[in-house]
């Protein structure tokens, strides 16, 4: 099933207006790359959404349940997994602009108990370290069965390097960021996501908490042995994972992220930590800039599904690819598909 949804951008002060163009070549590029992916029999379905110059193209392939032939559609709910972190980054950027927090803040000023361990030789972990994976926190929370246990687990962290000097991916840090955001806004993190992102952008199908009807649309994914895997059970704030969404809503999220006049987007896209000659960390964005290429991207992987979300503001392109399969090499395989699809789309722009 495919839908072509025109999205209009309006010229604002200091912003460029763009004009939708034909989508036939984009459809062909999506189909070519999706069918190539499905030749690998470990993959069963794939949904692809592209926003190019203000026009979206969404296509779905394969089957959600092995042997059933039930192709995903625009109402299919996928788990976004770690792509949720970009929502956390957006709200953190808003909090910085609202002067609720500051990037240089010692995180301990927001904690209700002393945590002398959250420093290295007197150098504290700061807000900017939480959102760039340079805090020195462990990847997974030491305790994650509930929020109280999480905060107790923070006392057991041992910071072994100066914060801000070394990248080390952490699922612990974004949860603490979500806790801090709750504290400064005096609202739940779920409420903040709804108020600041979902409602303003009419993302009505993106949510943490699902109804019984929603659950009938939620993807059940597989591992590489074709075994059904469980869905993620959120026990903490949701700073690292827990959002569910559809391809149509992700197009709306692309539109938001490609808005050059949104000050929160601009703040969240700032390069905060340089990891390589052309690679930076932003507010939970991985940023690649090389010549005329400027890519913001994030990968999401959970028990039975994985996805890549990519935007290129210079070329006015957004790409989302989702699949109901998850195993060790899935992210790398999807990354190659996204890269090839991006290049094919770029060829249509020339």
Helix and strand arrangement:
Layout: E1 2-6, H1 24-38, E2 45-52, E3 55-62, E4 78-79, H2 84-97, E5 119-120, E6 123-124, H3 127-130, H4 147-154, H5 172-185, H6 189-198, H7 212-216, E7 244-245, H8 247-257, H9 263-268, E8 273-276, E9 279-281, E10 286-290, E11 293-302, E12 305-312, E13 317-323, H10 330-349
Antiparallel strand pairs: 1-3, 2-3, 2-13, 4-7, 5-6, 8-9, 9-10, 10-11, 11-12, 12-13
Describe the model.
The chain is of the alpha+beta class and 350 residues long. Helices cover 31% and strands 19% of the residues. The chain is built from ten helices and 13 strands. A nine-stranded antiparallel beta sheet has the order 1-3-2-13-12-11-10-9-8, sandwiched between helices. A two-stranded antiparallel sheet has the order 4-7. Strand 12 and strand 13 form a beta hairpin. The chain is globular. Residues 1-14 and 16-21 have low confidence and may be disordered.
Quick summary of this structure?
The chain is α+β, with helices and mostly antiparallel strands.
Strand content: 15-25%
Tell me the overall shape: globular
Radius of gyration: 20 Å
Terminus-to-terminus distance: 28 Å
Strand and helix order: EHEEEHEEHHHHHEHHEEEEEEH
Number of helices: 10
Output the structural class.
alpha+beta
How helical, in percent, are the residues? Answer: 25-40%
Strands, total number = 13
**Strand order, sheet with most strands:** 1-3-2-13-12-11-10-9-8
The mean pLDDT is 93
């Amino acid at each position: 099933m495919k839908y072509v949804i025109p999205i209009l951008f309006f010229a604002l002060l200091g912003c460029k207006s763009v004009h939708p163009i034909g989508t036939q070549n984009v459809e062909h590029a999506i189909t070519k790359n999706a069918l190539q992916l499905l030749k690998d029999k470990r993959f069963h379905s794939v949904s692809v959404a592209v926003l190019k110059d203000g026009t979206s193209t969404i296509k779905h392939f394969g089957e959600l349940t092995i042997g059933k032939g039930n192709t995903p559609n625009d109402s299919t709910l996928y788990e976004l997994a770690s792509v949720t972190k970009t929502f956390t980054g957006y709200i953190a950027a808003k909090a910085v602009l609202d002067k609720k927090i500051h990037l240089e803040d010692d995180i301990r000023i927001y904690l209700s108990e002393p945590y002398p361990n959250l420093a290295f030789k007197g150098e504290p972990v700061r807000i900017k370290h939480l959102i760039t994976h340079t805090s020195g926190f462990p990847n997974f929370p030491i305790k994650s069965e509930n929020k109280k246990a999480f905060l107790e687990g923070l006392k057991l962290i041992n910071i072994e390097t100066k914060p801000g000097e070394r990248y080390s991916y952490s699922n612990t840090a974004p949860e603490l960021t979500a806790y801090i955001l709750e504290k400064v806004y005096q609202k739940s993190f779920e409420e903040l996501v709804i108020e600041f992102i979902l409602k303003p952008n009419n993302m009505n199908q993106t949510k943490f908490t699902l109804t019984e009807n929603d659950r009938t649309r939620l993807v059940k994914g597989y591992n590489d042995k074709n075994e059904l895997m469980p869905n993620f059970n959120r026990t903490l704030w949701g700073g690292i994972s827990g959002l569910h969404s559809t391809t149509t809503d992700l197009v709306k999220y692309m539109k938001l992220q490609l808005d050059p006049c949104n000050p929160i987007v601009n703040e969240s896209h700032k390069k905060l930590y340089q990891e390589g000659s052309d690679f930076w960390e932003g507010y939970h964005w991985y940023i690649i800039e090389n010549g005329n290429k400027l890519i913001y991207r994030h990968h999401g992987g959970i028990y039975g599904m994985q996805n890549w979300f990519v935007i290129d503001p210079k070329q006015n392109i957004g790409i989302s690819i989702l699949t109901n399969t998850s195993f060790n090499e899935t992210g790398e395989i999807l990354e190659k598909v996204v890269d090839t699809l991006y290049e094919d789309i770029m060829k249509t722009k020339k």
